[in-house]
Structures are given as structure tokens and as C-alpha cells.
Design brief:
This protein has 9 helices and 13 strands. By secondary structure, the chain is an alpha/beta fold. It binds uridine-5'-diphosphate.
Length: 321
């Protein structure tokens, strides 16, 4: 297949490109580099089946030729990033998705939407099943992301109903692994970075809020299965092993040799108190289950951040320079 991946220079987009190329497909990677990085695509240099297009898809998706699938990963995805880029986030989740869907409609291509557990907001149902409609503050600081993804799902379903477009909607829960941006503010890179530098580990609130962390390879496996299936979704993809943020910080503290103390900082507004995916649907329909426990996933993630921090330290001008 020839597959467009938007957000290709981002964390999940670039891993999805890796997988598609490994499966023998041709990939057109599109990104505007707002939060992504070309370093995530360096492995494709000289790869004839990979084509690079720098474009902001909320303005246009300038890709010609035959297209078999469009996989849309383009969006700021960390609370710190989308608080910094709220209008861009709303544009890419609405106009950007519209451009992807139009191209998919013209080409009779499959459309895969990387949606999010943020559609459930601060959930009143636990764990979250796909038939739960969510509890989202429409005007809060997270609404630019939550509502743009909810709108993206609505738009995707409208194209499915009106144009009979084959669509696949994945609701992605917290995922971690190599290529997350060290400074994107999310708890995994933030705490690993602090631990590696021997700085205090910042826990927001009392740390009793929960998240369920999925290693990136597991997530990509689920996404690829979804793309190849006939499932419209939405379908949850995430690891149901739930942990409090404080437990997670303690784990990082141990992994980094116990040098960093844990400090408490104010909880951001509308921070979801609990989050855990119900993944029966993914298990039944896709035969998918995450297989990498948090401990192993962190071990496989650690060297990436060590290298990133070391090269950043070398890049900084020394004293007197
Ligand atoms: N968090 C934290 N310390 C940090 C960054 C985040 O305690 O330095 C908390 C945050 O308040 C949230 C959880 O960790 O409860 C996960 O935050 P993240 O930004 O990774 O993603 P979210 O799941 O909220 O989208």
C-alpha cells in the first residue's frame, strides 16, 4: 500500500512509519515540525519507499498520486504543548482532519484517526469503555485538544456515514518510549529527564491521580492491526495496568539511583483523576493485548533519554565560550 502518515516526525507517527516500511509499504510522511523533529525520521535517509512532505495539514495536504490509506497523527499531544498552541491544536484537529478525509474520499482510501483517551475527559466511569461518552470541560485549558479530537471523531464518522468511507478510529491512552521529546512536559519524559539529571522529581497534586502507561511497540502493534482490520471503532488502545503518578515517580526515583527527591507541585486544572482503558474490544476484534510491562518498557526507554541528555550537554557552550 501507499500510505500517508501525518505527524510523521512526531513520537507515534515516526514509529508507525517504521512499522509500515518494515511491512513493505510505501510511506509519505507529512509534518509541519511544530512539535515533531526530523531526527525522528533520520533512519529513512536513502529509503526509496519513504517520501517526505513538509506541510501544515490544517492549510493543505499536498500529496499527489495513488493513496491507499491516510493515517492521521498530526497534533500537539502533550498538555504543555497544546496549552502553548491551542489554536493550532484546534485547527489541525478540525481543518487538518477535514483535508485528510477529503483526500481519502477522493482516493477511496482507508482513513485511520489517532484519537485519544482525552475524549473521556475527567471520566466518571472507570475503567473507560468505548461506549462511555466522556466528561469534558468544553472551555477549560485542555478543551483545545479534547474537543478537537472529539470533533475529529465526529467528522470521521460523518464521512463514514455520508461517503461510506472506510475509517478506523483508535482512542490512544498514555504511551511512552524512545523519541518522546525530553521537554514536552509529559510525566514520562519529564520525570526521566529529572531523574537522569539528579533534579527533584515533580509530582503534580498529591500524586494519587492514575494513568495506565503503554509501551510504544505494543501500541504500534495495535494500530497496525486496526489499520488492517475492518473495524470502524472507536477502539481503545492502551495498557490497562494502572498506577498512581506517585508510584510512577517512585519507580523513576529507584531507576535513577535514588538521588532525586520527590517534590509536590500544584495540580493543573482539569487534570483527569483516573484513567485506565477497558480493552476487551481490542482483544476480541483485533486479537491484541499489550505485552510489555512498565518495568521492561522503562528499561527499553532509558538509554534513549540518556543519549539525548548527553548530546544536549555536549551541544551547550562550555564556560568562557
Ligand atoms: N504530571 C506530574 N509531574 C509532571 C508532569 C505530569 O505529576 O512533571 C502528572 C499530570 O498532572 C498528570 C499525569 O502526570 O496527572 C500525566 O500527565 P501527562 O502530562 O503525561 O499526560 P496526561 O495523561 O495528563 O495527558
Amino acid at each position: 500500500m501507499r500510505i500517508i502518515v501525518t505527524g510523521a516526525a512526531g513520537f507515534l507517527g515516526s514509529h508507525f512509519c517504521d512499522r509500515l516500511l518494515a511491512e513493505g509499504h510505501e510511506v509519505v510522511g507529512v509534518d509541519n515540525l511544530a512539535t515533531g523533529s526530523l531526527a525522528n525520521l533520520a533512519q529513512f535517509r536513502g529509503e526509496p519507499r519513504f517520501e517526505w512532505v513538509e506541510s501544515d495539514i490544517s492549510r493543505a495536504l499536498p500529496v499527489g498520486g495513488r493513496v491507499d490509506a491516510v493515517a492521521d497523527f498530526a497534533s500537539p499531544a502533550s498538555p504543555v504543548d497544546y496549552a502553548r498552541l491551542p489554536i493550532e491544536t484546534l485547527r489541525v484537529g478540525s481543518l487538518g482532519v477535514f483535508h485528510c478525509l477529503e483526500l481519502a474520499r477522493e482516493q477511496r482510501a482507508v482513513f485511520l484517526l489517532a484519537s485519544t483517551s482525552e475524549c473521556y475527559g475527567d471520566p466518571e466511569v472507570h475503567p473507560q469503555r468505548e461506549d462511555y461518552w466522556g466528561h469534558v470541560n468544553p472551555i477549560g485549558p485542555r478543551s483545545c485538544y479534547d474537543e478537537s479530537k472529539r470533533f475529529a471523531e465526529a467528522l470521521t464518522m460523518a464521512y463514514h456515514r455520508v461517503h461510506r468511507l472506510p475509517v478506523r478510529i483508535a482512542r490512544i491512552f498514555n504511551t511512552y518510549g524512545p523519541r518522546m521529546r525530553l521537554d514536552d512536559g509529559r510525566v514520562v519524559p519529564q520525570l526521566i529527564g529529572q531523574g537522569l539529571r539528579g533534579e527533584p522529581l515533580t509530582v503534580y497534586g498529591d500524586g494519587q491521580q492514575t494513568r495506565s502507561f503503554c509501551f510504544v511497540d505494543d501500541l504500534i502493534e495495535g494500530l497496525y492491526r486496526l489499520l488492517r482490520s475492518n473495524e470502524t471503532g472507536p477502539i481503545n488502545l492502551g495498557n490497562p495496568a494502572e498506577t498512581t503518578v506517585l508510584e510512577f515517580a517512585r519507580r523513576i526515583q529507584t531507576l535513577s539511583g535514588g538521588k532525586s527527591e520527590i517534590v509536590f507541585r500544584p495540580l493543573p486544572q482539569d487534570d483527569p483523576r483516573r484513567r485506565c482503558p477497558e480493552i476487551t474490544l481490542a482483544r476480541q476484534r483485533l486479537g491484541w493485548l499489550p505485552t510489555v510491562p512498565l518495568e521492561e518498557g522503562l528499561r527499553r526507554t532509558w538509554p534513549y533519554f540518556e543519549t539525548t541528555i548527553r548530546s544536549a550537554a555536549h551541544a551547550e557552550p562550555g564556560p568562557g565560550q
